Amino acid sequence: MHTILFYDLIDDYERRRTMFRDEHFSLAREAHARGEIVLAGALADPADGALIVFRGDSPEVAVAFAKADPYVRNGLVTAWRVRKWNTVIGGE
Hints:
By secondary structure, this protein is of the alpha+beta class. Helices cover about 35% and strands about 35% of the residues. It has a single domain (about 1-85), classed as Alpha-Beta Plaits.
């Protein structure tokens, strides 16, 4: 099963993320190393959102990630939501 974590970002996200970026990437790299994160990245032109695709039996891993993320804790994310994704092709 896959779960997608959607982030809505503040207008000046690219400028304000700098001080929290190392901690955010560390959290993401650890989750990737555990096999939880499959893909992650910010949307471009405009940079107003981000998506993180998780693999696992429960969406709780994505929820826990969002709650621990310094981007969320420090107000760079204006809203986030988690959705189960019925993967049809790929995602092995």
